[in-house]
Specification:
It is a single chain. With 108 residues, the chain is mostly helical. The protein has one domain (3-107). Helix content is 84%, strand content 0%. The chain is built from five helices and no strands. It has helices spanning 3-17, 19-33, 41-59, 62-86, 91-107. Helix 3 packs antiparallel against helix 4, helix 3 runs parallel beside helix 5 and helix 4 packs antiparallel against helix 5. It is globular. The chain starts with a helix and ends with a helix.
């Protein structure tokens, strides 16, 4: 395997695996334009993926799994919005708490 072949495969794998992070980054850009800093985006994605996988595994229905994953992601986003806007919590602390919670539960 020469360097060019390795670099081509690495670039292809990076583009394939980075697509979901690109969508999350695009959503975060729109969120930051409103003045909210959401550092819990990764935890929200991980919790949605975990809920979607568990639902698909237990029910075998991908449409229900997709709906449950979206519901979990929206719920965590609403929790972050409630903490930051209504309760006036620090946005960095609330976002990092959601990230740590999501990462820890997904790795468990």
């Amino acid at each position: 395997m020469n360097f060019l072949d390795f670099f081509t495969r690495l670039l292809a794998a990076t583009l394939a695996m980075g697509t979901s992070l690109t969508y999350a980054t695009l959503g975060e850009v729109y969120t930051e334009k409103t003045g909210i800093l959401n550092l819990g985006m990764e935890g929200t994605m991980l919790m949605g993926a975990l809920a979607g996988f568990a639902t698909a595994y237990n029910t075998g229905n991908l449409l229900v799994a997709l709906f449950v994953a979206m519901l979990v992601g929206a719920t965590l986003s609403l929790i972050h919005a409630f903490l930051c806007i209504t309760m006036r919590a620090n946005q960095v602390v609330a976002g990092l708490a959601i990230t740590m919670f999501g990462t820890g539960l997904a790795n468990f």
